[in-house]
Amino acid sequence: MTTIKRYGKATMIIALLGTSAIGGTAVAKADEVKGSYDANAVINFIPNNEPTLPVDPEEPGGGGVTPIDPIDPTAPIEPGTAGPLSIDFASSLNFGTQKISSTNETYYAYSQQVTNEQGVTSNKPNYVQVTDNRGTAAGWTLSVKQVGDLTTTDNVKNKTLPGAAITLDGMTATSTTTDTLKPTVTDSVTLVPNSAEVVTTAPVNGGEGTWVTRFGSSQTLFDDTAALSDDGTTTETINKNKNVSLVVPGAIAKSAANYQAVLTWSLSDVPGN
Predict the structure, then answer these.
(1) Which residues face 115 on adjacent strands?
(2) Rounded distance, CA 15 to CA 4, Å?
């Protein structure tokens, strides 16, 4: 700072060298930067072996961000398979209590009931859920096999239902994962006992994150009257899915018994085309 006497008054002159004062802030010129130094921000990802919870088949919510609790019509829900490439959930199929018939009949599966985080129960299409947390984008293939005919363990004459066939229709693969190729689904699959049927395939560079293959949608669900007692006198309204059906030929003999078959879902690291 310099003080100069002029006309008998003292005047102060502030010398600003290489800066400008605007609003009290001094901003250095670019050509006056005397050096720079780069630091790094780092994160390292590894494959995730933790199980992934089931998600809403119509609103996946980003790979488990908004999990739901599916309700199994026949048994407690089993946890998903272990590993970074996993089957997280698959709907069990309940075709209800039906009267014995000598004509060809088509029965529809109960829809998948789920309970959200607020405890509200709703009906959803049946589905299977796969998660790929390997971090390799190597692709995968999902298939299902019906183990044998529908069979009963009851002490009755007709132990199996040969020719009865389950069909999974109207398939859609959905996820909120971005920047990955979408898996391909088979339009319709009719299960042949002891034969594996391919349902969904993810190509190389595809199928990362959590993916749901659902059978139908909310538009294919409908309310139907279902029998609760063996004599059919007690009924209730059940929500069912038109895209999951069981055809039972009228020509096969049936006993008054409970028939069931295991549906085995398999996931391999073989990519789709």
Answers:
(1) 69, 121
(2) 13
**3-state class of 19 per DSSP?**
coil
- 104's tokens: 């060809």
pLDDT tens per residue across span 121-142: 999 999 999 999 999 999 999 9
Q: Which residues have C-beta within 8 Å of that of residue 185, sequence separation ≥ 6?
A: 171, 172, 173, 199, 200, 213
Of 243, 9, 249, nearest to 124 by C-alpha is 243
Contact 87, 211 (CB under 8 A): no
Domain range list for the chain: 2-32, 61-268
Phi, psi angle pair for 131, to nearest 5°: -125, 135
Q: How far, in Å, CA of 36 to CA of 5, rounded?
A: 44
Look at residue 91 and tell me whether its pLDDT is greater than 80. Answer: yes
Q: Which two tokens stand for residue 224?
A: 């139907």
DSSP-derived pairing of the beta strands 196-202 and 184-185: antiparallel
Token pair, residue 208, equals 């990362």
